[in-house]
């Protein structure tokens, strides 16, 4: 009796009030919101750093910053975008959506969930604070290669500690997601009935658990090399600087799939909804995701074609890398087939999803080109690769996240965004992102190395274009901030429960009211 | 839709651009067998991507136009087709297999350094290159030329357009013969660098403590420029590579001239025994000549020589004003080492402080080390009065 009473009592509780609600919350929706807002803030911080870079590169000559500070900007821009913007955004979407999609009342480990989030802002603040330390922030690139990174000043141990904390945060979030997906699915929600977003996150979470400790280990070895006299990466003491690169990319290559697999999931949710069809080739999508996850572990040294590996290694990594094009191709073909003979409408989430397919495929092509190792001896460490990974990470991962935000925002807040404003945001972004990054293909092929603060005159025109594109891109994202804040404040049209026409056939989340109540699926839905 | 059209327009622009040779939109074909083979691979995979792109984007555009709800499209009900799914898994796989064959052939050739006519050792330093001709006995440093260096300082007021070959010019270019198979051996003196001249078709990392290699046979005389392509610290963007390829006869003549200049320096009567130090570098020859003056014990000559060495080898980190960069590169001004016992100072310069500072044992000659230490101990407000001799330095070798 008393248990029932307590339970009912609990039922009537809304969220606690005030600041402490957010500090102590164990609610998956609150934590999802915290992750997403943190991500948006860090996206702006990392973006501001990108604009410092593009301002300096607008024309030849050094106008604004010291070369060392420039190097710190490229380093922090990447670290913040990867660990502070994209990964937390996915964690936020996972928190909000996975329980709602699989019919679970919350994440399996709610207190762990709180901790894994709250590690994040402290790590982010510590990373940014290294800018003000003696000697400046780390300036050896986000890959933190020794021996160069060992020339960092006071910032080195703080940067490494940041990586450790971010790693702990990611591992905890990943464990929580795995446990939730494997244990909390509603009756009848078999693995092969799970929405693709849940599947891609399940695989991503396994990748994270496997790779973050490797990265943490590698940077710890940097720490001991610098402060405790070890020689892991110092040839004079019997070590090998290239060992670090192998360790880093054993983490780093799966990491880039951590940044893209959930994007595949989001796009696989959106395209069927706005095509008014079922996703084509569901099971092949699952298998393709799993193969990409597996392949990600055995291709790492394609980032190191120029270090002088034995020829056998060079060829092996070439063949293995080329294979990735197969499952990735399958995904693109499946999306196309989903749209084929559909009934398409072009609301904001669909616009972003289509742009994702187009531009991610472009990044896929340049990726395929770089897998050809002899050609990569030319492409390596030039702007060609800068163009490549921005196509897959900005017009890939970031576009997918924005698509997801537009798709689910009405469900989260109960308010529709302004479709015209969203269209303006989309077109400004999609045009400027191409103005920014497309010319970088030419720059790289013409011979411009990456990570340089100044350049020879023949690179001037395309750099100017690129900078103009970057600034338009950056400022266009203020529209996104405005749209999100407006919905959060409860302004704009009310959203229906279904939100999108026919959406109730495309996932459990659309069977809930809009906005989704603080507690959902306290009684498991029945899945047919 | 608009962005698709824009994309198409841009792609057309790419292909047209290819026709205009001097407008650099594409990879260079280069001037060696390897660079041409690599260019061909690049174009092959590029056109494969274009073909797949036309197919994928074509289907997408067709769908976006044809299957709009606003045009009355009604969704069909299908969600799998085993035959099609197998096909689009197998066909890409076969295309990749076909690509792997030429890629393997070219890679095997890239790795075949056998039968070289001559060898050159390339060492990357922050932020200059050292070239040692293992067969012809030449050995010199190559760094950004003075004009570019002046113009690239923050707010220098110099328009880069007024500097010939801005950031792609060096003081001492690498001169090589055409038509000879040259084997390069690469290593790093401090951090990892990467040596890239696009016209040769490849780049290679220079890794401290390890030796990597590569080869080239340049077919056409000319000047070929490149840059460091591995982030190597503050001045990574400012260590270009310039190769001058000459017909063999002219190359031989150049070698002879260099040796003659070197020979002059060595026959100077005042030349100290240390001039024959095993790794002493020979060009720029004038540096050797002036080094000979050090033995004159005239402190002002020593100081002048020391300043020269300081500006070439020390100032990039410790700064021209000797104040260093806080938290990274210690100041020479008021330094405990510089104002402490001479032997500690010599030992630091000779042995370096890996990975922060290179060992100068094999970079500078003992009299140059002596001069620069003398200079440091009597400049920037340091006033020890010490004059260091080459023999003091040799004691630390």
Topology of helices and strands:
The complex is a heterodimer of chains A (528) and B (397).
Chain A: H1 2-11, H2 19-24, H3 28-56, H4 67-102, H5 110-129, H6 155-183, H7 196-227, H8 241-258, H9 261-275, H10 282-295, H11 311-323, H12 325-339, H13 348-371, H14 373-379, H15 383-413, H16 419-446, H17 460-488
Chain B: H1 2-19, H2 33-66, H3 82-110, E1 118-125, E2 128-133, E3 139-142, H4 146-151, E4 174-177, E5 182-188, E6 193-197, E7 202-206, E8 212-216, E9 222-228, E10 241-246, H5 248-267, H6 285-292, H7 299-318, H8 342-351, H9 366-377, H10 390-394
Parallel strand pairs in B: 1-5, 4-10
Antiparallel strand pairs in B: 1-2, 2-3, 5-8, 6-7, 6-9, 9-10
Which features characterize this protein?
heterodimer, A: 528 residues, mainly alpha, 17 helices, B: 397 residues, alpha+beta, five-stranded mixed beta sheet
Explain how this protein is built.
The complex is a heterodimer of chains A (about 525) and B (about 400). Chain A is an all-alpha fold and about 525 residues long. Chain A is about 65% helix and about 0% strand. Chain A starts with a helix and ends in a 40-residue tail after the last helix. In chain A, about 60% of the residues are buried. A five-stranded mixed β-sheet of chain B has the order 3-2-1-5-8, with no helix packed on it. A five-stranded mixed β-sheet of chain B has the order 4-10-9-6-7. The model of chain B is unreliable at about 15-20 and about 265-295 (pLDDT under 50). Chain B has helices at about 1-20, 35-65, 80-110, 145-150, 250-265, 285-290, 300-320, 340-350, 365-375, 390-395, and strands at about 120-125, 130-135, 140, 175, 180-190, 195, 200-205, 210-215, 220-230, 240-245. Chain B has about 400 residues and is of the alpha+beta class. Chains A and B meet through helix 4, helix 10, helix 11, helix 12 and helix 13 of A and helix 1, helix 2, helix 3, strand 7 and strand 9 of B.
